[in-house]
Design brief:
Strand content of chain B: 15-25%
Largest interface: A-B, 63 and 59 residues
Helix content of chain A: 25-40%
Number of helices of chain B: 14
Oligomer: heterodimer
Shape of chain B: globular
Number of strands of chain A: 23
Helix content of chain B: 25-40%
Shape of chain A: globular
Structural class of chain A: alpha+beta
Low-confidence stretches of chain B: 11-32, 257-266, 368-373
Number of helices of chain A: 13
Structural class of chain B: alpha/beta
Strand content of chain A: 15-25%
Number of domains of chain B: 2
Mean pLDDT of chain B: 80
Distance between the termini of chain A: 117 Å
Number of strands of chain B: 17
Low-confidence stretches of chain A: 1-21, 231-235
Chain lengths: 563, 497
């Protein structure tokens, strides 16, 4: 049976270009001009990758020392000059400016910033900007708010100007809104990887940049803790000794805890300490049986996670970092500590004691499982999955400790405070955020502070519930909270409840602007809290904490502040 | 003409009155054998004390320090030092049983070189000179002191090079006190010349003491009923030398790079010339913090305020120098010789300018001194000394860091405290740093009668120096002994029981 077959046109040759701008494919016409650009809105990236030294130039270009930070994106002018952080490279000793880096230059941006270099000031500018920005971001996440510079009359957005090469001076410091970094020549006593006569840039010491950023943030958010005469330098009336010690401790803790957020360094340390990351020395990389090292790989190294500012310390003749995270617990050490840095170091050691105690407790089962499966840890043989697990664990613990220490600043009394007040603030801040302490971190902190002789003169016992600040009994107040969260309303509220709040002296009250913090608790519960400080003398005042409804929850005074 | 004659007559009367007073006070020393007189000269911010008692060989005088400094505000020197020294030389008839130089700050020793002519007449007529261990001629100690002085001079030069503000004024005040160099001020003299006169030109070699040493009292003073103990400074340790090394290292390089004299000699060029640019390389927003602000309007960012920025950075750096200067000041203060005299059972404590480290060494039983110990930790010996004082020469002109709180708490009652000071020389009330420190004065006033040298108006010739505004106007009498107020000195007279 045959029917008429439908014929189908088949293309047997290539399409020909006809006149005009179309290729004739028969029934289909294809344009030869590119299509016009689509009118889509351009979304900027969330982060800008920038290379920095993880520790400092002393460790060279080893894999763990070159790090790419993901810094919050913002358009930058040459400097770099951003909305909140501006880097202006003026040298007061040489009386000159140095060439500013343009991080928005496409060639620089696509490389993740300039490559690390000690001899190029533009890399130094890039590094201080990246680290300061990153530190500020991390602290704001912990506190749940944007940092503002508070005075008794106003709270303005925090703006920082950084001078990475301000002059020949062997230190870095903060003055008002300026962060000043000096440079100097290492002396004859320079040790370690620093050569005598070498120019040392404090702006390239990562810990120094983090430390000063933390210092500036503390000064901005809690100006009452600075006390009078702070602008002329510390080393003053002993009334403020512990204030200075706590500020120094939180700065050091910030620098050291940032080490634990750097995965490559933590993994390397885990490998070189067989998971015992609180060892002060790392195993050597080579298998040499010689006693005298001949190459870098045979040099025993300090544990970089525990040493702060190693380059700086070696440059000024110390054979170690400026300060260390650990020190042997000695209950009498505090009696001999006469200056803020010594006292602050004891607080740092106590916090790290707690951190490593929890780390040990939470990882002991992992090691047991590994050994039960026939594994043996010999030298550098930590298996990768185990190393990753240990790294994740210590990062989690360090994050919680970091958040606790920074949030504790909101719960410290106003004016002159003691070291024990900081412990109480840590316990309260962590309780308010986490509730149940399944890890036992708060207990570990309490014991670590106790071992070092840091007591609270305002707590009756050394237990967690006694150390937590007492919640206000609202039935004793005229109203549960002020009419609104303005300074005048808070002042009126405090004066009308003076007796219930512990008997405030009759004096003019100074109220700082109120800060609002918004966090999400581990159980996904949103938390809104309001903080402020009220002073009646430079050294005497109270911190007020209001809950999300504006009701007073805590009125925290230091010893002797009220009658 | 008649007016001029009347004025001259009045002046002659005043001089006669002053001379009579001088003779009377000299008489009181000779005739009253059982009394001790402690004289505090009013010279401003400095110490100038004369302790006198009788012995069978005549009156015995102890001179404790002779100096003054202008300080941060320039108001510390009230230009009475030369007159006071002249008065002292007449009073003592150019004879001293003992000179004590507590430490080498300008406000304790400048008088020796400023009034060199007067002191040279004491040559051969001084029985003993006591100084702190830190003035010995041991090479290591001398090198230490020379480096301190060089550091002070370098800091001073750096402060003079910058703009004058509150910080540089304080820096200058501290470094002038440390080095004794003050070309702008009145009088002249230097610390170095004062030390040279004391060590070489009075005809007696000084004795150098530290805490625990047994001092050799001249026979005349022993006969007058004195005994003495050295309570400070603490013996020198290598830590003191390390502290100085840290200080020199931190400051010296800055001084060198900025052209000031220092011990380091290497110039630092951090970057190549290809990186050096002008402020035009920066956008105007880089200078936004220094843009003039008009309320209600955004800042004007059309210009680059480079000069204001440069000034801000330069003004940041002297703070580091100020911290170094304060450390240097503390090191020198803690070298103070602290002497406890006992006269016929009465204890007299002269603390120089000793600060915490010096005090705490002898006050507490702990192995190392502590910064803020409770009163319960005071040693038995320290407590015994403080609770039985008859007289306390307040440390460091009444500053807060020189009389520990715990020491005040342990002091007894009904004694007399003398504080040679001048208000508004260092510190301010606004930032709780005033000298003398008012809360400290109040605390001591609860235990003793506090006499400030500046609480009375002073008069020298036609010149009248008003009393301090922060001093109490209540004129109490001491519970034990008596007080005599003269034109430019105050006497506290104790009788033996």
């Amino acid at each position: 049976m045959t029917g008429k077959r439908q014929s189908r046109r088949v293309e047997t040759s290539a399409p020909t270009v006809g006149e005009g701008d179309a290729i004739n494919f028969g029934t289909k016409v294809w344009p030869t001009k590119p299509p016009p650009p689509l009118k889509r809105p351009r979304h900027p990236p969330s982060f800008r990758p920038l290379q920095v030294y993880a520790f400092g130039p002393g460790l060279g270009r080893t894999p763990i020392n070159i790090r790419t930070l993901l810094v919050r994106y913002e358009p930058l002018a040459p400097g770099p000059i951003g909305e909140r952080i501006a880097v202006v490279d003026y040298d007061s000793t040489r009386n000159c400016f140095y060439d500013p880096v343009d991080l928005d230059d496409p060639l620089i941006a696509m490389n993740g910033g300039l490559d690390p270099s000690e001899s190029d000031p533009r890399f130094h500018q890039q590094m201080v900007y990246a680290i300061a920005n990153n530190t500020l971001h991390r602290i704001e996440v912990a506190l749940g708010r944007t940092i503002r510079r508070r005075t008794l009359t106003e709270a303005k957005p925090l703006r920082v100007v950084i001078f990475p090469h301000a002059g020949v001076i062997a230190q870095s410091y903060v003055k008002e809104n300026r962060m000043v970094f000096g440079y100097f020549q290492a002396g004859d006593a320079a040790a370690g990887r620093t050569v005598p006569g070498q120019t040392v840039f404090t702006c390239l010491v990562t810990d120094a940049v983090i430390n000063q950023t933390a210092n500036m943030i503390q000064t901005a958010m809690r100006p009452d803790l600075d006390g009078p005469d702070a602008a002329a330098g510390r080393g003053r009336d002993t009334t403020w000794l512990d204030n200075d010690a706590i500020v120094a401790a939180v700065c050091d803790l910030t620098s050291l805890l940032f080490h634990f957020g750097y995965r490559e360094a933590v993994l390397d340390t885990i490998q070189r300490t067989a998971g015992v990351i609180y060892r002060s020395q790392l195993d050597v990389d080579s298998d040499s049986t010689r006693q005298a090292p001949r190459i870098i790989a045979e040099l025993a190294a300090e544990n970089p996670l525990l040493a702060m500012g190693q380059d700086f310390g070696e440059a000024v003749g110390q054979r170690a970092g400026l300060r260390s995270a650990l020190a042997s617990p000695d209950p009498r050490a505090l009696e001999h500590a006469n200056d803020p840095w010594s006292r602050g170091a004891i607080v740092v050691a106590a916090v790290f004691d707690a951190l490593f105690s929890i780390y040990q407790r939470r990882t002991v089962d992992l090691f047991r499982i590994f050994r039960a499966g026939g594994g043996r840890l010999q030298g550098n043989d930590v298996p990768e999955p185990l190393a990753n697990r240990l790294c994740a664990e210590v990062e989690r613990i360090a994050t919680r400790v970091f958040n606790m220490c920074w949030r504790a600043l909101d719960y410290c009394p106003a004016g002159a405070i003691e070291l024990g007040d900081f412990l109480r603030a840590c316990i309260t801040a962590d309780f308010e955020y986490s509730g149940d302490d399944l890890w036992g971190l708060r207990d570990a902190m309490t014991q670590a502070f106790r071992l070092r002789g840091i007591k609270s003169s305002t707590a009756s016992f050394f237990t967690e519930d006694a150390l937590r600040w007492g919640v206000i009994d609202s039935s004793t107040l005229n109203s549960r909270g002020p009419a609104d969260l303005s300074q005048d309303a808070v002042r009126a509220f405090v004066m009308s409840n003076a007796k219930s709040l512990g008997g405030l002296p009759k004096a003019q009250l100074k109220v700082y602007p109120i800060e609002q913090a918004q966090l999400t608790a581990p159980d996904d519960r949103p938390q809104t809290t309001y903080f402020t400080q009220v002073l009646w003398k430079a050294a005497r005042g109270m911190t007020l904490v209001f809950d999300g409804h504006g009701f007073l929850k805590y009125a925290i005074c230091s010893k002797g502040a009220t009658r | 003409m008649a007016k001029a004659r009347a004025k001259a007559k009045s002046k002659r009367k005043e001089n006669v009155k002053s001379t009579k007073q001088t003779r009377a006070s000299r008489k009181s020393g000779k005739e009253t054998g059982n009394s001790l007189r402690i004289r505090m000269y009013r010279i401003g911010f400095g110490d100038f004390f004369l302790v006198s008692a009788s012995s069978k060989d005549g009156p015995q005088h102890i001179l404790i320090d002779c100096g003054v400094t202008r300080g941060k505000t320039g108001k510390g020197d009230i230009a009475t030092l030369k007159t006071a020294v002249r008065h002292m030389t007449e009073e003592t008839d150019h004879r001293l049983a003992l000179i004590i130089v507590t430490h080498r700050h300008q406000d304790h020793i400048i008088g020796f070189s400023r009034c060199e002519d007067g002191f040279e007449k004491f040559q051969g007529r001084v029985d003993a000179i006591w100084m702190s261990y830190w003035e010995t001629e041991y090479p290591q100690v001398q090198k230490f002191q020379d480096e301190l002085e060089n550091l002070a001079l370098g800091l001073r030069a750096a402060a003079l090079a910058g703009d004058r503000d509150a910080v540089s004024d304080e820096l200058l005040g501290i470094t002038e006190n440390a080095s004794g160099v003050s070309p702008e001020g009145p009088g002249g003299g230097t610390n170095r010349r004062s030390l040279e006169l004391l060590k070489n030109r009075l005809g007696v070699k000084p004795q150098y003491y530290a805490a625990g040493d047994t001092p050799a009292l001249p026979k005349g003073l022993v006969d007058a009923g004195f005994s003495a103990r050295i309570l400070g400074p603490p013996p020198a340790t290598e830590f003191d030398f390390l502290k100085l090394m840290d200080l020199t290292q931190g400051v010296g390089q800055y001084l060198d790079a900025s052209g000031s004299p220092s011990t380091t000699k290497t110039a630092i060029l951090p970057f190549g010339p290809e990186f050096i640019v002008g402020p035009d390389a920066y956008p105007t927003t880089a200078f936004r913090e220094w843009a003039p602000r008009v309320p209600g309007k955004p800042p004007d960012l059309k210009e680059r305020y480079a000069q204001a920025l440069e000034k801000a950075v330069k003004s940041s750096t002297p703070n580091a120098l100020l911290m170094a200067a304060r450390k240097l000041d503390g090191i020198l203060n803690n070298q103070s010789l602290v002497v406890l005299f006992t006269w016929r059972g009465k204890q007299l404590l002269f603390a120089g300018d000793a600060q915490a480290g010096n005090w705490l060494y002898w006050l507490y039983d702990l192995e190392k001194p502590t910064k803020k110990p409770s009163e319960e930790q005071l040693g038995e010996e320290g407590r015994a000394i403080l609770s039985s004082l008859a007289f306390y020469k307040m440390g460091h002109h009444g500053s807060t860091n020189a009389t520990p709180i715990a020491a005040v708490g342990a002091m007894g009652q009904d004694f007399v405290t003398m504080c040679s000071t001048q208000e508004d020389t260092f510190g301010t009330v606004d930032n709780d740093s005033e000298v003398p420190r008012i809360p400290l004065m109040r605390a001591l006033a609860k235990k003793s009668l506090v006499i400030r040298s500046d609480q009375y108006p002073a008069r020298i010739g036609d010149k009248e120096i008003p009393a301090a505004t922060t001093a109490s106007t209540t004129r109490e009498k001491p519970k034990v002994g008596k007080l005599e107020v003269h034109d430019f000195y105050v006497d506290y007279i104790l009788e033996a029981e």
